[in-house]
Amino acid sequence: MAELSSFDPTQQYDVLVVGGGNAALCAAIAARREGASVLVLEGAPKFYRGGNTRHTRNIRCAHDSATETLTGPYSEEELFEDLLRVTGGKTDEPLAKHMIRESKEVLVWLTEQGVRYQPSLGGTLTLGRTNAFFLGGGRAMLNALYRTAEELGIDVMYDAPVTALEIDNGMFVSATMTHGGASHQVRARTLVAAAGGFESNIEWLKEYWGEAAENFLIRGTPHNRGTVLKMLLNAGVQETGDPTQCHAVAIDARAPKYDGGIITRLDCVVFGVVVNKNAVRFYDEGEDIWPKRYAIWGRLVAQQPDQIAYIIFDASSLKLFMPSLFPPITAPTIRELAGKLELDPTVLEKTIGDFNAGVRPGTFNHADLDDCRTEGVTPPKSHWARKIEAAPFYAYPVRPGITFTYLGVRVNLEARMLMQDGTPAANMFAAGEIMAGNVLTKGYAAGIGMTIGSVSGRMAGRGAAKNARN
Fold it and tell me: Which pLDDT tens digit goes with each residue over 178-189?
């Protein structure tokens, strides 16, 4: 791995990859395997390398049959239908279908780069057929990619944020990066931007969310501030995606401001009810299967007073989901639980009482759209509705946990950036979060961010290497 002592400012690389996560490494490896010389600039220190990939667990890819770790087939058509469902039909259809087709090769390709899989985890995600889980999680997956990069002779520099890009009419010329307190110019024939979104830039988030963004918790890296994204947009690259849309889940309100990761996420919404600070419910907790709805709850909580909410359930549900890092708050009665949560006890008792009165009997099955529902309750609970009556009672306080933003650069089927006039950039490609908004306009399906990163990384890396040769 390159350090400053080995950095030669006169060298012109074939491919410069800006970023250090899954998408960046897939691009770097793909380009290197095509014969290109590659430099990766990771803005974070080595210990924190990899962006949000460090916190992931699985990847959602199309596949034709069961494997040692996947329980059955998951067709291109079904994956596309799932994408349409979570985005409300709003996606770049040709690009989405192309990426889904490419995803069929990714599981094997990642294995060839040293990544290993394990059987899926249990709980509410029920992903054993659709998603491949990384053995050791995202950090192990990332370490495997870095080992392969090193073996292939890819140069990587840490603590090397890019502070400026020289772009001339859609052609990348050079980048300026800082390392050890000094600035250095890096020249390359092609650029792959894989530096993430702007989720850790609270000031930028406030432009769209107002003061509510102060109460957002950032699940992943504090280094994704959107610096490269903003430079590209200012240089005439066409933007895509809604700046207010993001992957945002409900996470434990006691989590740290940054880098709390996946262990602060809460998957127990379907087992209880969610109330705001006024002790009233505000959305259907059983709208759809959890992997297709968990990423809407951050936005829902963000729209509540003071961006705080509480998941409330009883003893019958305590062991049905993967818990948070923090223990639930518990009390022998709903009234006492309200006191611990600083909620109006009378209102909370009425909210729970009205909900219980509306529950209709059915056969409970959290892995499917069961027939346990409510009647005469607003909002309804469409599935998995059971009375909250078995003491003791439990609650988790939750806040919006932002994973990544959907504003990005527009790309074509080669992952090549498009300029504002619609023409392809001469030598600039994008991969991962920085271009995810082409496919994800809103919503989320578990594991699809890793799919976009891996697929677009391979596409961008191959395209950049070919471009450099020409």
Answer: 999 999 999 999
155-157 vs 246-252, strand pairing mode: unpaired
pLDDT digits (tens, 9 = 90+) for 192-230: 999 999 999 999 999 999 999 999 999 999 999 999 999
Q: Are strands 329-331 and 182-193 parallel, antiparallel or unpaired?
A: unpaired
The residue segments making up the domain with residue 280 are 248-401
Helix axes 93-112, 76-87, angle to 10 degrees: 120
**Contact criterion met (CB below 8 Å) for 428 and 418:** no
Provide the 10 A C-beta neighbour count for residue 292. Answer: 16
Domain boundary among 375, 401, 427: 401
- pLDDT at residue 323, rounded to an integer: 85
Enter the DSSP assignment of 137. H
Question: Looking up tokens 């992943």, which residue turns up?
Answer: 220
Are residue 364 and residue 381 in the same domain, yes or no? yes
Distance CA 294, CA 124 (A): 10
Contact by Cβ (8 Å): 275, 312? yes
CATH number at residue 309: 3.90.700.10
Q: What DSSP assignment string belongs to 161-207? A: -EEEEEEETTEEEEEEEEETTEEEEEEEEEEEE----STT-HHHHHH
- From 350, 376, 401, give the residue that closes a domain: 401
Compute the distance between CA of residue 234 and CA of residue 194 in angstroms, rounded to an integer.
17
Res 124: pLDDT: 55
106-110 contacts: CB < 8 A, separation 24 or more? 106/59, 106/61, 106/451, 106/454, 106/455, 106/458, 107/59, 107/61, 107/63, 107/67, 107/132, 109/454, 109/458, 110/59, 110/141, 110/454
Tell me the H-state helices in 263-406.
297-302, 334-341, 345-358
Residue 5 domain flag? no
* Count of positions (residues) in the chain: 470
- How many domains is the chain built from? 2
